[in-house]
Structures are given as structure tokens and as C-alpha cells.
Amino acid sequence: MLYGKEHVKRYQETDGAEGHDWQGTVTLLLTTKGRRTGREYTTPLIYQKVGDDYVIVASKGGAPEHPEWYLNLQADPEVKVQVKGDKFTARARTATAEEKPGLWRTMVAAWPDYDEYKRKTDRDIPVVVLERR
After folding, report:
1. Which of 5, 18, 15 minimizes the C-alpha distance to 86?
2. Topology classification of domain 4-132
3. Using alpha carbons only, how large is the chain's radius of gyration in Å?
4. Tens of pLDDT along 4-28?
């Protein structure tokens, strides 16, 4: 099973032929700019396409703190995205209170563990919308 840096490497090398389909769901690669270092960081994340947008969840497995990639995109919402061989820039934003319930249901349908992650933390787990540029 691909995970972490190896997941990113194989995804990039194969234009997602290896790594897009993952454990019964689908993943994209999100590249953010480090808010302190300015370096680029790429993370494989479960996604769902909703209309023209891509939706991801900043769950960090239910940890008490937000994932680094989420903190990075809060500082700089201009991100790079790869879905299979399709590479593009996007603007990331946290889903509004009105959008979130429906998007959360969509993401839980794709990865039911999100509900378990939500139970494990007092943190409000953000749902992020990636709007293609």
C-alpha cells in the first residue's frame, strides 16, 4: 500500500496510475507553500469532485491540531493540485457553515472513517474546497 513520500513519488512518476485509486477511494496531490520555510510540500489526500471543484478534509486522523498542509494554505491559499495526469493551480478555501454539512456527507460517503476522526477530537475538522484557476 502506498503511503506518504512513496505515495507522492509513485503518483507523480505514473501520472496517478499508481496512487490515485487508494483503499477503495481516490486521492489527489496537494502542494502548498510552507508558511515559515516557503518550501513546497506535497501531500496525498482523499478527494471528491463536487461540480467544478475538488473537496478535501483537514482531518489529520482526528488529531487535536490541524494538519500542516491546512495551516500552510491558510497562510497562502494558492496551491498546486494533481489529479491523475491533470496538474493545475487552485485557490483553497474553507467551506462555509452553509456548505459544510453537505460536503461532509459527500466526504464521509467516500471515506467513512471521517466520522470516527470527528468523534476523536474536539477540533472542528475543516472541509476545504479547491477552486481550479
Report:
1. 15
2. Pnp Oxidase; Chain A (2.30.110)
3. 14
4. 899 999 999 999 999 999 999 999 9
